[in-house]
Amino acid sequence: MPRPVYLALAIAALAWLLYAPALTADFVWDARAKVLISNFIHDPANLPDVLTGRVLTRDVLDNNRPGNLLSLMIDAALWGRRPAGYHATSVTLHAAACAMLFLLLLRLLPPGGGTWPALAAALVFAVHPLNCEAVSEVSYREDLLVACSILAALFAATAFLRKPGLWRNLLLAGACCLALLFGVSAKENGVAGPVVLAFYWLLWRRGEPRLPWAGLLVAAFLVVLGFLAARFTLRPEHSIIFTQAPQRLGGSFAASLLIQLRIWAMEFSQILFPHDLCADYGPYSIRNFSLPLAAIVVALVIASQLFLASRNRLFALGSIFFWAGLLPVSNIVPIFRPMADRFLYVPLLGVSMLLAQALSASRCRRFLYVLLVPLFIWVLFCVAVTLNREPVWHDSLSLWQDTAAGNPRSPTALDNLGWALLDANRPESAAAAFYRGIQLLGNADPDLWAGLALASEAAGRPAAADAAFRRAVALDPRYAHPQELVRALTAEPEIAGKLEVLARRAKNP
After folding, report:
1. Residue 353: CA count within 13 A, CB half-sphere
2. For residues 216-226, b (16+ Cβ closer than 10 Å) or e, as one string?
3. Is residue 163 in some structural domain?
4. Do 384 and 476 fall into the same domain?
5. Domain ranges, residue 377
6. Per 3-state DSSP, what percentage of the chain is helix, strand, and coil (rounded to 5)?
7. pLDDT tens-digit profile of 288-333?
8. What does the pLDDT read at residue 424?
9. Which of 18, 51, 260, 345 meets the CB 3.0–4.6 Å disulfide criterion with 134?
């Protein structure tokens, strides 16, 4: 095999070894609902709906992301409900993304001087701690699928028109469009794919015959935008799962943009110095970034990228890749989680391109050596943070203890921590977590009251359990019929069974 292939395999192996501990992890957060509670991915009869897009109209978790559902269905066919196989798939996808990034950078960097810059940039992407969430939580592999799909499409595009041959180019164009379609079907930020493809043509290939490229680009945009049109117009007529729509930050578009500036500043700081990583960010997480400071940080980043883009085409492509991957997860359209580590998985590909070009452009060997020393130290720091972060995603108790510590004002963290403590047979600690969550939300969350009811029951306080359960039912009548919660994927069958006891007692006091 050629030397670049060996190096790509080495990068993939390193990424695999770094995340190998994930194979011992359990299902956490959304993966529990998608793999353990729901039977959808375990029923082969649902495969035609996923392949044809009919799943968009079904009341299923991830119904608008059939690409992600397809990957989970393949795992379900192979592994059932055993988590190790699902984790192995996610780790393999990350390793593949690292290898493809390295090989793509070799094609984009100047001939003769790109191997080590490409290797260093791919290594940084492989070990960056912000990727831990996407790799370690199997239901969040959607970002891995988007990254692999866009890289595969760009890789096919680099070979487009290199040699004459109609059928060869048709096959490459078909592969490119299929990869982009799969990417956007895995997650909406796959819309970055055709944008990046268009700028690749503009920066590298616009001197070639334009008709074939015009056909490829038009087809790429049509398949991606066509899927997005279906995704936003087709939906279940009645849903018991999606009972609430995401809300705009601050209540208006203008307020959302101002908050988004602070989120971007926080995300940029996490890219350069990953610290205080959290599974559920919120206002507490961006408390150190005032609006004026955030505006200055964002303006400096954009100005730097514009300056670099004017000097070099890979700087330009990296900057486009970064923003094309970031904007779809930036609350322009309201989303349920305003900020998450996994949202930066695709933008980090753009950062890696910027780094590769920066290293390649360091023609003064002495300056390059000076630059490599802090980069090496920073990579070691990233490896240490990633190794420290992986155990956080090992099980629900570890995840929510860490999240509640990182964001003590997160009701989501306190709610899930309470259930994890209850599962660990620590009812008093669980009750304390549920009560703190109730205080934060002003008594408005039925799940917290239901959890407090079960914690009180387990601690031997039936009167307190009954009072808390009545509050839960008053806020959400479904708690009087716990099996409805299982169908809505908001409660696991074992929890529903315990709630049934309280429901029967409430009917016959």
Report:
1. 29
2. bbebbbebbee
3. yes
4. no
5. 3-237+245-392
6. 75, 0, 25
7. 999 999 999 999 999 999 999 999 999 999 999 999 999 999 999 8
8. 95
9. 345
